[in-house]
Amino acid sequence: MGLIVQKYGGTSVADEACIQHVASRIKTSYDAGDHVVVVVSARSGVTNDLINRASRLTSKPDCRELDMLLSIGEQETIALVTIALHALGVPAVSRTGAQAGIITTDQHTQARILHITGGDIKEQLDAGRVVVVAGFQGVSDKGEITTLGRGSSDLTAVAIASFLEADRCEIYTDVEGVHTGDPSLIADATLLKQMDYGMMQELSSSGFKVVQARAVQLAERYKMPMVVSSSKKSSAGTSIQDELSSFEGPRVYGVALDKQQAKILIEGIAHEPRSLAQLFAALKAASVEVGMVLQSDSRDIKKGLSITVPHAQLHAASAALEVVFDRLGEGRIIDMGPVAKLSVVGAGMRSDVSIMATLLAALAEAQVQVLMVSTSEVRITVVIPVQKAEEALRFIHSALGLGSKKTEEALTMQVG
Fold first, then answer.
1. Sign (positive or negative) of CA dihedral 134, 225, 221, 290
2. pLDDT digits (tens, 9 = 90+) for 344-398
3. pTM of the full structure
4. β-bridge pairing 372-375 and 379-385
5. Domains in the chain, start-ordered, CATH in brackets?
6. Which helix (H) or strand (E) is 412 found in, with range?
7. Of 51, 215, 306, 314, which sees the most CB atoms within 10 A?
């Protein structure tokens, strides 16, 4: 008997048939004697539909009212899953984020978890019930409904698992686990049986949609073991845990693609610390995630500064920067349009130049222009035109030999 937290994403609960299948999986764990907490997302497409409804009324919906609206999606799912469990004879009860005691900041649509009280989850588990919790949402200390940002049901699951000191947190999705690349784009992407928290964070922050980066970060902080697996197939999936032992030397775990990026050129601002500090402070205050930064020409202090931001935050970034320009009396923004970030993640990325050489040679072969480059010991990222991003991803995955079934065997030997 153990205590496990299971999370099911939107595609896993997309319709009544999917929900019945999920309920049967939960019943299997319950019948095995486990205490089970289930965290669910809104059904696939529901959140986007709610956002579109609001957008048809105004181009700038109020963030508080958006949270009120978007929280409906998960509330629908917890009720349907609980009803499906009742139909199978499994005692279960649903809880919203507020009822589960997920206390957050009051920053609507992008709230962060402050702490968890748990509500009556422990009491319900002791009474032999499965507890079904709404992911993605919480409540501020002022009693306001908040949401944690897209993809944050993973974060909810890890947070609850950590609070309960669960044996593990199981993330169920529409793929069998973590692969060397997106299997929907790369036919021969290889399933990885093991990952450590650090590499998983890098992949997630680089564009992997399997597990949210914030969730992995929290799991690492509380040493919560995670398993990523398919909700529709029997698969051992990918185990994510503390740092695994390895032989010294470069390893490439995978390639990730983020096509939801925009490039901004900032001109006419002196590239000195005081002015630049004001720019980035304004972006931080507006909760804009700055990806890459490139100064066009170090010999000309006003030549230009290029940055990448999520495309969805382009308006917020522009508005924040315009305020700084007005205060400084100089500066302008040029929207350079949508771009993609393509990243190679592994160990020894900077120390082994052959990986960079292979990456650039593959891009040259695919006739893909490189707009920006950044490197670290665990990641090489290039900014490229979004139109050829998927083709470039496949070229690089192949050039690095990640499609071979030997990839998993080699990685297993190195982390063994």
1. negative
2. 998 888 777 888 999 999 999 889 999 999 988 899 999 999 999 999 999 999 9
3. 0.86
4. antiparallel
5. 3-174 (3.40.1160.10), 253-415 (3.30.2130.10)
6. helix 406-415
7. 215
